[in-house]
């Protein structure tokens, strides 16, 4: 099952909210039906984005699985779950997924003679983690570690091929085309470069954060002001890349719609090229991500 290119999804093109209009006797082609699907997908995604924002809706906890007698490969494991990306698309991972850590490390070490790992190595690691993580792991934090971030992004794949007319300058009689496009996902573990005290590379917090201890009037006024200032047009990226502009949690030319899940700290020995300190545990911060609790969860927490 191959993943389609990013630009193949109409939502990545930030198209205007136009839907097809039909009339008796009008000639239709495949593009008309594709445009209708794109309109409804786009309106739903826009509504979900403003109602909930982007982040984790349920599940998607990240953990480290060391090697055992039954698990020969060290793995980063992602639990099943559901997220909303920065275009408002639902990204669902229906079953557990694993990334082989030794293979990933070897690939990174081979890039530019290990320069990628050197640039992603940091000390004073508590500044790059969530307060909850630091409180739980302050004793375990190593002196140095390579910092990598795990993302999940929306992907689509073609399935169910059926006979069709050939497209383009062809006259084949045995052409086929995909009859379905399956919503899927892709995980990316990327080393973080150029982090410092002014750029932590973590998702930004909502504008009204930090008002939990304020009185009801202050919280109401802040909420109203936040809503009044909340509308923004879809932010197109710079250059020719489709999609949305990257956020503080993204790096370089990566897909700006990708959802940040967790930060992975890989303890290393202070060599010229970072070497894994295999005796030290791999630490994973799940708590700096954006959480999107449902109304049912909020009601349950309030005793409703």
Give an overview of the whole structure.
- The chain is an alpha+beta fold and 304 residues long.
- The chain has one domain.
- It is 21% helix and 26% strand.
- The protein contains six helices and twelve strands.
- The strands form three sheets. Strands 7, 8, 9, 10, 11 and 12 form a six-stranded antiparallel beta sheet that branches.
- The longest helix is centred in the first third of the chain and has 23 residues, at 30-52.
- The mean pLDDT is 88.
User: How many individual β-strands?
Assistant: 12
| Main beta-sheet annotation | 6 strands, antiparallel
Q: How much is the radius of gyration in Å?
A: 23 Å
Number of helices: 6
Shape: globular
How does the helix and strand content classify structurally? alpha+beta
Helix % is 10-25%
- How many separate structural domains? 1
Provide the descriptors you would attach to this structure in a database record.
304 residues, alpha+beta, 6-stranded antiparallel beta sheet, 3-stranded antiparallel beta sheet, 12 strands
Structure described in brief:
The chain is α+β, with helices and mostly antiparallel strands.
Describe the protein's topology.
Layout: H1 30-52, E1 55-59, E2 62-65, E3 75-78, E4 81-84, E5 90-93, E6 97-100, H2 101-109, H3 115-119, E7 121-122, H4 131-137, E8 145-163, E9 176-191, H5 216-228, E10 259-269, E11 275-276, E12 283-285, H6 295-301
Antiparallel strand pairs: 1-4, 2-3, 3-6, 4-5, 7-8, 8-9, 8-10, 10-11, 10-12
């Amino acid at each position: 099952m191959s993943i389609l290119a990013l630009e193949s999804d109409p939502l990545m093109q930030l198209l205007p909210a136009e839907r097809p209009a039909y009339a008796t006797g009008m000639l239709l082609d495949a593009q008309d039906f594709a445009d209708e699907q794109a309109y409804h997908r786009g309106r739903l995604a826009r509504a979900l984005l403003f109602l909930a924002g982007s982040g984790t809706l349920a599940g998607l906890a990240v953990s480290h699985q060391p090697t055992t007698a039954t698990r020969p490969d060290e793995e980063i494991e992602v639990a099943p779950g559901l997220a909303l990306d920065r275009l408002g698309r639902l990204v669902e991972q229906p079953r557990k997924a694993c990334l082989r850590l030794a293979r990933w490390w070897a690939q990174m070490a081979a890039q530019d003679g290990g320069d990628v790992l050197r640039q992603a190595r940091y000390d004073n690691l508590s500044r790059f983690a969530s307060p909850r993580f630091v409180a739980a792991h302050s004793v375990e934090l190593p002196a140095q570690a390579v910092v990598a971030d795990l993302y999940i992004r929306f992907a689509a794949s073609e399935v169910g091929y059926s006979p069709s007319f050939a497209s383009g300058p062809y006259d084949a009689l045995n052409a086929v085309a995909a009859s379905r496009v399956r919503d899927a996902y892709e995980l990316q573990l990327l080393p973080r470069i150029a982090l410092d005290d002014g750029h932590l590379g973590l998702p930004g917090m909502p504008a009204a954060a930090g008002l939990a201890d304020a009185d009801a009037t202050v919280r109401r006024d802040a909420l109203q002001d936040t809503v009044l200032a909340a509308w923004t047009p879809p932010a197109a990226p710079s250059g020719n890349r489709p999609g949305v502009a990257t956020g503080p949690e993204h790096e370089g030319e990566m897909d700006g719609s990708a959802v940040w899940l967790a930060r992975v700290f890989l303890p290393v020995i202070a060599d010229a090229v970072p070497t894994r300190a295999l005796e030290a545990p791999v630490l994973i911060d799940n708590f700096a991500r954006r959480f999107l609790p449902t109304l049912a969860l909020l009601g349950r927490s309030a005793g409703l």
